[in-house]
Amino acid sequence: MHTKQTIREAHTTFRRHLASKPDEKRQRDASILQHTLKALDHFGAVGSEISAYHPLRTEPAAADYPLQLAQHARTVWLPISLPGGVLQWAACTEEQQPGALGIAEPVGSRFSSEVLKGCAALVIPALAVDRRGQRLGKGAGYYDRALEQVRDHRIPIVAVVFDEEVVDTLPAQPHDVPVDAIVTDRGFFPL
Fold it and tell me: Which cofactors, by name (predicted)?
């Protein structure tokens, strides 16, 4: 089995390659939005509070992904990265500012990850997901720490990846919180 680092490197290379094909990426991003909406409907989260993320240029989903999701949710909570691997959350609005890690962040009141306990679904990024629901992130542990706080609340977690990033098996740690579904550019897959 490959190490987490070699898997991260391979998927990062794949994403850079895909980002160099803007027409293909745009089509895939549009499909990801549609399949995310199917996932939200499946989990009864349409019209409710959800969390999402603001994608980087190489990540799955278009730059307006959170604003598109906000049209189908009461509130979309977006992460704000703080030093020490901590995430805070603010409601998605059109007013955004560059964050500490170069990721667009909403302007407004910030809340701890406790706010996620009121969500009907959590839509999160990943570099890869396996068929058991193990998620591989970028390695800083931001989402691991946030998800640990809601682990016992049985909130559906939906990982968003490109279809090529769904793998058979990923290395897992005891602290890893598995996801309940996968959204790709090819479909929505409850686990």
Answer: Mg(2+)
The per-residue pLDDT for range 23-53, each reduced to its tens digit, is 999 999 999 999 999 999 999 999 999 999 9
Q: Is 4 annotated as a binding residue?
A: yes
Range of the domain at 74: 4-190
136 annotated to bind ligand: yes
Q: Residue 155 sits in a domain of what CATH number? A: 3.40.50.10420
Strand partners of residue 51: 77, 122
Token pair for residue 63? 């730059």
* Residue 143, marked binder: yes
53 is in an annotated binding site: no
What does the pLDDT look like over 50-89, one tens digit per residue?
999 999 999 999 999 999 999 999 999 999 988 888 999 9
Q: Is 96 annotated as a binding residue?
A: no
| Residue 7 marked as a ligand binder | yes
